[in-house]
Write a structure and sequence with these properties.
two-stranded parallel ribbon, about 160 residues, single chain, three-stranded antiparallel sheet, elongated, alpha+beta
Amino acid sequence: MMAMQVKWDDMLSALEFVSMGRPYEHVAVLCMKTGEFLWHSEVGDNFDEWPDDVDDEEKYISIPHKLDLDLGKGLAFAFTREFLPADFDDVQRLFSRRGAYAKFKDLLHRRNTIDRWYEFEARATEKALRGWCDFNDIEIVDDTKSPTDAGERGSH
């Protein structure tokens, strides 16, 4: 079977939509026959007509939430370990309470590492999502170099 071809920006947009809220609050699926994305939200207006057979794994594949790709607090911990090791215990405490990401980003602003965090997060997201696509026989096409590629060339 030939891999489904999808544009990177479309795949990334679907991941970002699904990850906007809690898991299953926003859902996107990829039609494996047409290559089109369908979007559905439990909150607010729905974007697309939701097919009755959306659970048919031969026809549709659900786009993962960022937490399904281990891009949640574990990523924040990995960043802190690498770039702010003296703050690691504080960051662990932040993530034991509500509002952790806002407090984490406040810390990053105070340490002047917010841009580094966004680069770190973008690279991790791209790696995880491309790996997920490979695993699911989804080929990324029309792929322009992402902004993280330029940063990687200059950092070696």
